[in-house]
Amino acid sequence: MRITIEVKVAAPIEQVWKAWTSPSDIQQWNAASEDWHCPSAEIDLSHGGKFSYRMEAKDGSIGFDFEGTFTKVVPYDLIEFALADERLVAVEFAEGDETVTVRESFDAESINSGEQQRQGWQAILDRFAHHVESKNLS
Description:
- By secondary structure, this protein is an alpha+beta fold.
- It has one domain (2-137): START domain (Alpha-D-Glucose-1,6-Bisphosphate, Chain A, domain 4, 2-Layer Sandwich), CATH 3.30.530.
- Helix content is 29%, strand content 42%.
- It has three helices and seven strands.
- Strand 4 and strand 5 (78-83) form a beta hairpin.
- The longest helix is centred in the last third of the chain and has 24 residues, at 114-137.
């Protein structure tokens, strides 16, 4: 099953791209809820480059590494990668008049329901938009 989610971000494409690809930004938005965080993020944004984002409950009770390998990078347009479990993900950046639409399509995993996965990934994407827009206002 393939799942697609999206969000519109009221910011310039350069700012959206930087927030998506900068480890210091990733650490600020890459969590599905307030009781989780991303204490570390490493990224080599190039074809064949790897990334690893540590995601943990703030109370330390559980955590995991979200990692994979980039298979295609088109600056300000498209990022494709394969996760460590070989599921494929595509992130598209579509510039509009005053917003950038960020659309993620990913292969679902078999442990959680499709709806749970959609909600979790959408929550992270919504946090991303909020992070970018709050930086854009300052």
